[in-house]
Task: structure prediction
Amino acid sequence: MKCFISRVYSLNVDVVNSVQNVLDKLKIDSMDMYSESLQENSGGKFENIIEKVIREVDFVIGILSNNSQNVLFEIGIAVGMKKPIFLLFEENVNIPFCFRGMTYIRINKNLENNLVLPLNCFIDNIKKEAEELEIKKHFQKPLTPLCIMEEDKIKQLNVIRESGDYKDYEKFVMQLFEEIHQQYTTTRFSLAKRDEGYDFAVWVDELDNFIANPLYFNLKFGDINQLRLEEILYKSAITIQDGGAMIVLYCDRKKRKISSKNNLFKDVIVLDIEKFVHLICEYDFTKAFIYIRNCIAHGKEF
Result:
């Protein structure tokens, strides 16, 4: 994949290097207006060069600092061409209202580490949308009414509890997220290795002002009692000490509902899978988590 980096010439070199290191790690070819290859072929009008470069890339990274008029111009071209745009804002820059629906993060001292996951998810989503666009040319499936979906999902869960295992439960959750992906603006799944303390992560744009991004999902299946849950909570809190929120999504074979009211870890949310299905069917994905956060803030069950 190819990417165009829109930035000012005087941008802090540490920021430039951090972004480039992440792109190299993700194996993304990149260039900006100051790249040697562009300078060598700079004949013609500036606007024409920019248009040609942006037309040929898969997405654009815009880095906004003070007095970055050229960046705003280049982002405008990218918007006109319907190119996916990932934005980075310096800490002292106010985010324009027109950009708040886009994927963005703030630049900080730990930029390289904080950029990897959201950018990787952003790229995964671009690939997925390209695949879906190809599929939609041949096949279109109407959305399932949520009330029907809830009833069907509960039946599936009952079967998994009776005769299934963790793999069946994991497959159920992944399929559920595939079916509700239109309910939120995200950057798809980032699957984790088994020793990382979670199963997958999702960056949800609409939750930026309500819950710390990304959302780490930790799936638990089997005999889930209060003692085991406390152990899971402690380990989950350690996993997310660098930021984000952990969602422990559990499925107990005996349908026990464990209270989350006395949870001491504010960034760890414990959810029974049936309750999760019900909430996303009643509110939709993003509103469900805003509702959950409000319940936690007021010490209520959800």
